[in-house]
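Hi Prof. W.,

I finally got the YbbR-like domain-containing protein prediction working! I wasn't sure whether to trim anything, so I left the full sequence exactly as given:
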Amino acid sequence: MLFIIIAFVFLIFSKFSNDYKQTINLKVNLVNIDDEILIKNDSANYLQAYVEAKGFSLIPFVFNNSKELQVNAQNEVTITPNSFVFDVLKHQYLIEDQLGNAYDLISILPDTLLIAYSKRASKSVPVTLKSAVNYAVGYDLKEEFSLNVDSVKVVGSEEEVNKINSISTKELVLNDINSDIKNTVKLDVSAYDNIDVFPKTIEVSGDVVRFTEGTIEVPIIIVNQPENVEINYFPKTVALSYYVDLENYNAVKAIDFRVECNYAELEENQTFLVPKVVNKPEFVKHIYIRQKQIDFIEL
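And this is what came out:
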């Protein structure tokens, strides 16, 4: 039995060491296609390569007689209005390279392959970040969140694409944050039918630093007061509470704030003005006016 088994093994090795000829189906897969391109009838994009190789090299094709052929849509095909044209004979070297040295290419059919496609509408739209971030006590975002892209490409039917003016992310939810933020967030196209977006995710980052509260007195400025109206108002200044990072705490000056009361917004029989902060340093956050009303009388 041992001699029979050894003889059988030698027979198998002898058979597989011989050269054989076989037809292999090459599935043409286009890469680097523009996002708006849709390949039609993808199952028909095959070439038939007649090759010669050792039996060992042909074993992978016993159960699946096909191999994928990568073709670059940017420089290895000719683009027509309705199809990509792949000149097979011109790119025979490409096929031989991807088959490998174990296979000798005898012939290939067809000599030209037409790969039909359709083109969808597309446009670039701005990205809006949705976030619900809770910071640890004494911490906050130093500036605004930074996105690695400010716009994305939306692709789909012309009717649907024309409806879209911006794309928002899925909500970024973070709690008790006391360190810098760097997260990947998916874009949300659930409100649209048959729409693709490229890229499908964006990178969100932000610097989180220690913050502290400060207060400052700022004079009130009356705007839109008629020339024929003279008033006296009290108080003449308001106290502002604000949130600022420790690095910029000493840089806060009253001159950098502007608080206005708009006389034109007075309603009939109203005897007070409403102060509003119309200018502040960029690094200051969460301003709170302690004096909600400014009393006045006409002289």
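The two ends are 124 Å apart (CA to CA). Does that look reasonable to you?

Thanks,
D.
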